[in-house]
Amino acid sequence: MSQQARLDALALAGDLPGVLLDAKRLAASAPGVHGRRRSGQGEAFWQYRDHRAEDGARMVDWRRSARGDRYFVREREREASQTAWFWMDPDAGFNWTSDPARTTKLRRAQTIALALATLLTRGGERVGAIGVAPRAGQRAVERLALDFTTPAREAPPPPRSCIIFLSDFYAPVETWRDRLTACADAGASGALVLVADPTEEDFPFRGRTLFLEPGGRREMLLGRAEAAREIYADRLETHRRAIRALGAEFGFPALLHRTDHGAAPALAMLISLVAERFA
After folding, report:
1. Angle, to 10 degrees, between the axis of helix 140-147 and the axis of helix 16-28?
2. What mean pLDDT is predicted for residues 88-97?
């Protein structure tokens, strides 16, 4: 890791308590996420069912059966925790906001991801960043938050996994096709969370405007910025349509979230997508 990358990671780590607090508050207002429930080898009671001939006498729960004229078998819940993997866009443009009073796209994405991770770990599931070992339990979310302070790794997707990509998705469509193709080849599916700044959505610029690339050196000067609004909107919609189509093709439904909106609706929709994947 370069010296600048280390400094950036330390700066992000210094804000971890705030991000974690935001995530816990968001999770507290959201519906829970429950693990998959099936009978199997576990300790927790799940349900009673009618005794079958192949069960034999040793499977009968005599205490429950004594209440009536039927024989019952006590089933336990299978302990089968699953893992949700997260990929956080490392591009400098993702760690950006058009208004210092509003959160960056990166911080909002981290908040949503950590809130979801909080709910998943409460339900007995594991969470992890791509390229890092997944964890379970009370400290898993804190460790995941720390993993988010280092750039996402381009590691092979875990097989048959659930992966949540959080990005502004401004990378070329072919880049995303390659990523999602690798996921599909590994039997993975999940969700795409498109996080956008309102200025990127509305393009409110007028007159002579200088556009600078976040974290880069490229710039563009427009004499009448408002003249480019319609072309910009068309290109953005075309790109978004292509990303959504890719997601639908490879089993990664997409949802759009603006940083000037509350995060709760986006989290609720993401919970629904992940719960469906874990079903």
Report:
1. 130
2. 94
